Amino acid sequence: MLGLLRKIFRTGRVAERDPGRPGYGLLAVASEFSGSVQVRHVNAGSCNGCEVEVGSAFGPVYDAERYGARLVASPRHADALLVTGPVTRNMAEPLRRTYDAVPGPKAVLAVGDCARNCGAFAGAYGVAGAVRDVVPVDLEIEGCPPRPEAIVEGLRRLTGR
Amino acid sequence: MNVLGIIAGVVQPVLLLAGAPLLIGVLGSVRARLEGRIGAGVTAPYRELRKLFAKEQIDPGGTSEVFRLAPLLLLATTVVVAVVAPFVASRPAIGPAADLFAVVALLVLGAVALVLGGLDTGTAYGALGAGRRLTILALAEPTLLVAILALATRAGSTNLATIVTATLDEPLRVVSPGSLLAAAALVVAIIAETGRRPVDDPASLAEATMVHGAAELEYAGPDLAIVRLASGMRLAVMLGLLANLFVPWGIATSAAPVAVLVGVVALVVKILVLGVLVAVAEVFVARLRLVRVPELLAGSFVLALLAVSASFFLA
Amino acid sequence: MNVAATFLAAAAVLGVLAALAGALPDYVLKPNLRAPAAGFGTALTGAAGVVAGIAAMTGDAYTADVPGLLPLSGVTISIDALSGPFLTAVGVAAVAAGVYAVGDARSRVAQAMTPLFVVAMLLVPAAGGVGTFLVCWELVAATSLVLVLVEHRRSPEVAVAGRWYAALSQLGFLTVLSGLLMLAGQAGDSFAALRDASPSPAARGVVFVLTLVGFAAAAGVAPLHIWLPRANTEAPSAAAALMSAAMVTLGGYGIVRVGLDLLGGGTRWWWLGVLALGVLSAVAGLLRAAASTDLKRLLARATIGGSGLVLVGIGAAGLFAAAGDRVLAGVALTAALLQVLGHAAYTALLFLATGSVVRATGTRDLETLGGLRRKMPVTTAAFGLGALAASALPPGTAFISVWLLVQALVHVPPGTGTTVGVAVPVALAAVALSVGLAVAALGRAFGIGFLARPRSAAAEQASESPPVVLAGLGLAGLASLVLALGPTLVLPALGEASALAVGGGDHTVSGIITVQLGGIAGTFSPLIVTIALAVALALAIGGARLLFRNRTRRAVSTWDGGAGPPPRRATTFAVPVYGDGGTEGRVWRPALAALNAWGRAGRLLATGSVHRYVGYGFYAVCGLLVVLAVTR
């Protein structure tokens, strides 16, 4: 326990400096979120590359929570869906249901090239399409995988902080 | 009814209701800071509540009035406790209702309401969370009761105001063995009842490991806001009760404005200090396996029983 | 004849008439008329019992002697303040069960036997002599045994339940009989004569222990409770309600009457024994209830717990009285008596609501129920009310009685002595634990049995019971509500009755809105707590309505993880308690095995040879003569 305490003091704050708000505009729906956005992550068929980056976006270094975004367990608690991967046939219906379960107003973030246009999996027999083919998408974040900074930037366009 | 009681009856619920999100925010910030993060800030829960209240209301299929009324009942029971128990002033608004038995029963009633709300959804996780919650409740309630009864035995009354006044009159009672045992038991019971670590993790994302969260998975928008608000208020109420039972100093004993102001400040400071301690402790302990939780609670129950015995024999 | 006596007599006459109506063959009284005649007759019997009980509680006392009615002892009737609560408890349960039975009793035996059972139970607290008491007690045991066996064609379990019940109720009767006869042999038959007699302390101890065994068995107290979950599961719902709600309270009555009244208090260890029995069954009963999946069995185990709480109150009262603290003794006994009344009301309600469920679905298995609130809203509300009343949450009946019990225990002055100093914390812990367990057991039963989704076709296609069944539920619910909201209506009378039994001062409990305890600092207002809660809830609902008045609720399917409906069997509740063996496996099986072995050993002596038997007789007489010659 003392060791942990020592480590806490030695490590201090690891979060990176606030790079400043993104230069371009907020999403229209952001005004309804009062600077607090709960995010439900849906893996619609991702290779888990994006997951690693999403994980670090919410980790101590990039600390998306300081901008008002937080991961939650239930779509009922969520304002935004963060979808990664091309939507596979098996995940198309669950994604639709998850979208239905979110109370409005709501937003959908398609994170990664696969979510935007199926990426390397385009045309594969098990892929139903990009995220926008299944549910309406408000914001797309490119990259394979996208950098955590990009994900945080996208989230900040929702929270407005 | 007396002037002080009426002031307390108005100030206490308003203060606890308005301050509950701040308490949650402080807990989150302290934890974030210790984890090397910056965190969402102490006002984040207010923003979250504002947003939730503005959101759409959802009616999950197959649910009934029980599901819709549960958050309101949770809030109502907590507000009643905030009105009658001694938080800011030592003389409560409704004297005969400030009984420890009534206060504990009201807190349990709120918890049971939420359990039934979770069960009413008919989902697997709702039933899972409700079952775990009831099991914890079945052991936490007796611990709460017996621990406070140990103090009641000493004061010769089960009225919370009388217990607080008795401690004010005889400060040395606080360091008696019975009192210390009761404090230890109460802390464990309160941690379990409010779903903090090591019993439950409020930040958990895995439904299968949740206790409190699992029963709330179906609530959305304003309903969820009420659940969050009432849960925060429950935490504030329990910490305030813990503080005033053992360290009642600062509580207003007269209706003078200065005394009431001191009472308010003292309560805020006590609850925040306890809240920070809870948050710090949460960083240092891991969650217990669920099967271990009843053992922890049974241990705290034994502590409470020892506290009662001690206050009988060592008085 | 005063009010109490008149109505008791009326109850007896009505009950016998109802029994006759129930027994009439089909060509005299059509079956569709027989059920109402017997059922409403039972209800009227109960109503007369309630009136008699209330009259007795408010001070009507009556004593009568009818010498010729029974051989040897005659019949002695004596109604006093202590009889009152028990008459009322039996009456309340009988009114509700009688009305309920109109809609849910098909067997003629049950229709004929139920009113007789009620009459017998009403006569027990009104008996004024040993002979009368024993006859009524046996009548209760016999009629209830018949009721347990009514549905014997349904399953072999009924026969097993009947055997356990017959063995334990008759064993209990035997010990009560031997105890009371020992007492009567010294002083005479009537209770008045017994009160004046002063048997030796050793004799009193033996009498108390003997009767305690019998009364504890009747009260369904661990470890003699073994019959209760079986019998109450297999008996028809109305009879099970009567047994659980009314009959078990008579065990408590017996202990109070014999221990506190006839024997005049006795010593501490008697009451420590009662307290220990109470503590054991309060915790064990509710612990097992929290792990049951059969709805009736769960309620039967909760009954054991409730009965245990009554015994904790009685034991504490006796303990304090023996220690000389009459005020605390009065408060503890008042708590026990209120618990008796509340227990009668909410246990009847819970059992009848369960009966209504069984009637509609044909199952009492919590695993296959669920989702009943849509199809059976009234039954659901009734069960919810009963569960709330039984789990010591406000506003409920048990809430007040447990509060009173806690008051009596908390106000014991520190340093009263080691015995009390050990007993009181343990009792407090047991009371607290039983409260928590009751919440878990009943909350769980209500939540998974009535809320959630139907888990079987039977539960899905259930339909609400006919109005007369619901009227029975309503009557029991009304009694629960009255006791929950206005305990102050009965508390002063109960206080007087307790003062009478323990010899304390009067005004033990007073106050209309606020309960005030005489002699110790204790005021509490259940009514104000209820009103405050109602106001807060109304404000919350009103506020929510106002804030969200322009918003519609969007109906969506429940969140299922996105992957289809959740598993239908969602009863993931399991309190890790001891296995299925329970007391039966640990206490009774070994005891019966030992008895068996003893019997087999006896076979060595009894070979069938007449010479041997004559020889035994010869040696026995010689031995007796030697003993007499030496000791005299």
Question: Keywords for this structure?
Answer:
heterotrimer, A: about 160 residues, alpha/beta, two-stranded antiparallel ribbon, 7 strands, about 30% helix, globular, C: about 625 residues, mainly alpha, three-stranded antiparallel beta sheet, 6 strands, about 5% strand
Structure in words:
Chain A is an alpha/beta fold and 161 residues long. In chain A, 30% of the residues lie in helices and 17% in strands. In chain A, the strands form 2 sheets. Chain A has a 5-stranded parallel sheet with strand order 2-1-3-5-7. In chain A, helix 2 crosses helix 5. The model of chain A has no long low-confidence stretch (mean pLDDT 89). Helix content of chain B is 70%, strand content 1%. In chain B, helix 2 (44-53) runs antiparallel to helix 9 (221-246), helix 5 packs across helix 6 and helix 5 (124-155) runs parallel beside helix 11. The two termini of chain B are 33 Å apart. The model of chain B has no long low-confidence stretch (mean pLDDT 88). By secondary structure, chain C is mostly helical. The relative contact order of chain C is 0.09. Chains B and C meet through strand 1, helix 3, helix 4, helix 5 and helix 11 of B and helix 16, helix 17, strand 5, helix 21 and strand 6 of C.
Sequence-ordered SSE layout with sheet pairings:
The complex is a heterotrimer of chains A (161), B (315) and C (632).
Chain A (H helix, E strand, L loop, with lengths): L1 H10 L25 E7 L5 H9 L11 E3 L8 E5 L2 E2 H13 L5 E5 L1 H5 L9 E3 L9 E3 L6 H12 L2
Parallel strand pairs in A: 1-2, 1-3, 3-5, 5-7
Antiparallel strand pairs in A: 4-6
Helix pairs in contact in A: 2-5
Chain B lengths: L2 H32 L9 H10 L3 E4 L4 H20 L15 H21 L3 H32 L4 H10 L7 H17 L18 H4 L5 H26 L10 H28 L8 H21 L2
Helix pairs in contact in B: 1-2, 1-3, 1-9, 1-10, 2-9, 3-4, 3-9, 4-5, 5-6, 5-7, 5-11, 7-9, 7-11, 9-10
Chain C lengths: L2 H21 L7 H27 L4 E5 L8 E5 L3 H21 L4 H16 L6 H20 L6 H32 L3 H6 L4 H19 L7 H8 L2 H26 L5 H23 L4 H28 L3 H36 L10 H4 L1 H14 L6 H14 L7 H33 L6 H4 L6 H19 L1 H16 L6 E2 L4 E3 L5 E2 L1 H22 L5 E4 L25 H24 L4 H22 L1
Antiparallel strand pairs in C: 1-2, 3-4, 4-5
Helix pairs in contact in C: 1-2, 1-4, 2-3, 2-4, 3-4, 3-10, 3-13, 3-19, 4-5, 4-10, 5-6, 5-10, 6-8, 6-9, 8-10, 9-10, 9-12, 10-12, 10-13, 11-12, 11-17, 12-13, 12-16, 12-17, 13-15, 13-16, 13-19, 13-20, 15-17, 15-19, 16-17, 16-19, 19-20
